[in-house]
Amino acid sequence: MNVVELKQEAPAGLVKVSRHGSVLRLEMNNPPANALSIAMMEALKDEFDAAREDKSVRVVILASATPGKLFCAGHDLKELTVHRADEDRGRAFFARTMKLCAEVMQTIVHLPVPVIAEVDGLATAAGCQLVASCDLAMCTDTSTFCTPGVNIGLFCSTPMVALSRNVHRKQAMEMLLTGETIDASTAREFGLINRIMPRQYLNQVVMKYAEVIASKSPLTVKIGKEAFYRQAEMTLSDAYEYTAGVMVENMMARDAEEGIGAFIAKRKPEWTGE
Question: Burial letters for 96-134: b for 16+ Cβ neighbours within 10 Å, e otherwise?
Fold first, then answer.
């Protein structure tokens, strides 16, 4: 059997799951580094796929089960290195790893609900990619970020995809070419992070944002998130043509009719998700 098609059984507890009303919280629990091993990525993808099917989920928070240390250290270099002993020097396993990583990142982007990264610690390489792939990102004032692959002879090419779609090109290249670690303030200046706060307020602020978003029409949020990423890859004229059509279809939704009616009547809307 082709090794690329194999799927390992993920160790129990790699992702801690909890619910707070309509907010789903996923905590990476692969100490000490929350490395994105095959098992870890499969566990994350499984949880995101489950969230897609659960219509009661309005927002997903992605965090670390060990805050204050490492949010995520990227790929498991030890796991990758072991497969250099394979007959093909690891090529098939490397391809499997990168393919699965791309699937996880795209699953986040294509999820019909927003994903908020709650970062307290270091997010490096594919861990930084994970932050960049989320729709929003909040961090503590001691968190740091980097794409250091160039330092070990492995350019962060896949992290570059998410990074270059979130920060200015020259700033993305600065991170990719130097491999240097940036602090939280610089990450916010670059556009990688939305908000910075002291550790004791992180969870509280993230939950506040999640609850505000969860209070909106789920259909409207789904439409908006999909349109945001699709139009970003289009030319200006194509983007306007596409989003004009999206607006028309959105106007036909019952939630839009209800929301506009509630605004005019100065009452709270009652969303049905239709």
Answer: bbeebbeebbebbbebbbbbbbbbbbbbbbbbbbbbbbb
Domain of residue 222, CATH code: 1.10.12.10
* Predicted confidence (pLDDT) per residue in 198-231, tens digit: 999 999 999 999 999 999 999 999 999 999 999 9
Task: Domain of residue 235: give its range.
Answer: 218-265
Query: Global pTM?
Result: 0.91
- What does each C-alpha distance from 194 to 139, 197, 258 come to in angstroms? 8, 10, 31
Closest CA to 47 of 69, 68, 83, 18: 18
Confidence at 55, pLDDT banded by 50, 70, 90: very high
